[in-house]
Write a structure and sequence with these properties.
With about 150 residues, the protein is mostly helical. The chain folds into 2 domains: about 70 residues, no CATH class; about 50 residues, no CATH class. It is built from 4 helices and no strands. Helix 1 packs antiparallel against helix 2. The radius of gyration is 19 Å and the shape is globular. The chain starts with 15 loop residues before the first helix and ends in a 54-residue tail after the last helix. It is found in: Nucleus.
Length: about 150
């Protein structure tokens, strides 16, 4: 018996048209970053642009909903459900001490040698002066909340 096609596509919430262009730009940048050649780079360096764009896109949706209150809750949840923003990263941004968190890998202790967080989470005043700190996971140069 053939499958019956039904249109169960949910309509986009009101106001999505206003942010759709910006989200499409992020999608285009993400595709470009994924397709960039990675010759001459370390293996982890080729993923850094992808992490940055992912952070920017999630921060854009977060700012629209929590800071500027420019979008509705329905539109915010639609963006989370359809992958326009990372719900886990946004959940961390709402907690004190994680307001500037760059990615979730920087707070996972299993990815480090000594079972601690990433070097980019250390406040800059605690580090040696003129020392450039760069995260191995995402290329961040410091996402501690006290910076």
């Amino acid at each position: 018996m053939p499958k019956v096609k039904t249109s169960r596509t949910k309509k986009r919430p009101e106001g999505f048209e206003e942010i759709e262009e910006t989200l499409q730009e992020f999608t285009k940048k993400m595709k470009d970053a994924e397709n960039d050649p990675h010759e001459g780079k370390r293996r982890v360096e080729s993923l850094w642009p992808v992490f940055r764009i992912h952070h920017q896109r999630s921060r854009y949706v977060y700012d629209l909903y929590y800071k500027r209150k420019a979008i509705s809750k329905e539109l915010y949840e639609y963006c989370l459900k359809n992958g326009y923003a990372d719900a886990n990263l946004i959940a961390k941004w709402k907690k004190p001490g994680f307001e500037k968190l760059c990615c979730l890998r920087c707070i996972q202790s299993k990815d480090t040698n000594f079972g601690t967080t990433c070097i980019c989470r250390v406040p800059k005043e605690k580090l040696e002066e003129e020392k450039v700190v760069e995260c191995v996971h995402c290329g961040c140069r410091g996402c501690a909340s006290s910076d």
